[in-house]
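URGENT: need a sanity check before tomorrow's submission.

F., can you look over the 5-bromo-4-chloroindolyl phosphate hydrolysis protein record below? I want to be sure the sequence and structure line up before it goes out.
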Amino acid sequence: MAGSDEILSAAQALLARTSPEGRARARRRWERRKQRFVAMARRMFLATLAILIGAIAWGSLIAPLGFGGVMAVALGLILAWVGVILFSAEPAARAEELPQVALAALPQRTEAWLDAQRPALPAPAHRLIDQIGVRLEGLAPSLAGLDEREPAAAEVRRLIGEELPELVKGYQRVPAPLRRQGPDAQLVEGLRLVETEIGRMTEQLASGDLDKLATQGKYLELKYRGDPTAD
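Structure tokens as predicted:
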């Protein structure tokens, strides 16, 4: 029986990786890594340029560098590069920090934390994690301009910053031998509900944006073309 379960889990994991959601997750991870690499390369270039300009200015205006000065410059470059690499590393997301994360960054940080929990979750949950990741990616643009004091912001924060992490942590607190007696199914059902709810929130926020766009369009029409009903 254990062998059959392992085969089934491996098959489900493979399906999750090759699903559209799984490919989308891989694409998002690659894009984030590329962005971090580009930012790190830019910082390293600027740090190198600043050190070299400083060294040239010192050698030209104050005193020749000499062997000791060249070694000092080389050491400064190494320390600067190491500092840039350490500074550019993305810190691991922690569930305890999610309620305090800025609203605009919350979807990405929640997805990063949820993705890190994947090995400790049952295979049927993996595809739902990918689907939630897709939902979070779609939600993020609507949160960029949302006021933290809005009721919708509090609802979003409560769902993906508190209730979703607590659902996963509650499952992880159950001893492994007891999880197949119900918690596996409860976790999957809970993740499915979260995925549906994030989709509903995204639609509501997008609908609000469309209403604002329509109102602004009407305002511009009245202002620059005149009220068509005035005639």
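My own read: The chain has a mean pLDDT of 82. The longest helix spans residues 183-225. If you see anything odd, call me.
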